[in-house]
Amino acid sequence: MADDDTIDYPRLVREALRAVPRQALRVAAAEGIPAGHAFYLTFRTAHAGVGLSPGLHARYPGEMTIVLEHQFWDLAVGEDAFSVTLRFGGAPERLHVPFAALVSFADPGAEFGLRFDAVPQAGAVEPGAEPGAELAVSATETASGNVVDIRAFRRPGREA
Looking at the domain assignment, is residue 121 inside a domain? Predict the structure, then answer.
């Protein structure tokens, strides 16, 4: 097997972990969020495909955290993104968020959280990023403090 024919395990892990908030949101859209639970979703507002009003984008030019608990409307969950209506300053705002824009997902009621490290878009390189940093995906279980980082399983001297 040639080097360019390797399996992209970091990408597979990222995709698998992003299925968790997708499925949790699908349950919430169909059944509501169970009592004692809330979803905290942090996303990159400048990510391609994010839909925010100009006013919200100006207030949150980098990242934004939304909380889905009691007051949210019209939650729609697709394969690649979700949309929801929330109130900001009393005014309803429709948000559209691709799952690829997520930075983190947490449900404190379940003591569960995931953090998604940034993956540069279209070959972009973030200043100061270490080589291979875009491959990091970590899952955090807040109850025990355990963190699983796929970089720990990478063979020494091998950049994926």
Answer: no
The pLDDT tens digits of the residues spanning 22-49 come to 999 999 999 999 999 999 999 999 999 9
Question: What pTM value is reported for the model?
Answer: 0.71
- Let me know the angle formed at the C-alpha of 116 by 115 and 117, rounded to the nearest 5 degrees: 115
> Would 94 be classed as within a structural domain?
yes
- List the structure tokens of 73: 């409307």
Neighbour tally for 4: CB within 10 Å:
5
Q: Is 32 inside any structural domain?
A: yes
Number of domains in the chain: 1
Count of C-beta atoms within a 10 Å radius of residue 40: 15
Give the rounded distance of the alpha carbon of 127 from its chain centre.
21
Q: Is residue 127 part of a domain?
A: no
Considering just the CA atoms, what is the radius of gyration of the chain in Å?
A: 17
Distance CA 155, CA 7 (A): 14
CATH code of the domain covering residue 50: 2.30.30.220
Q: Domain residues for 23?
A: 7-105
Q: Which residues contact 122 (CB under 8 A, 6 or more apart)?
A: none
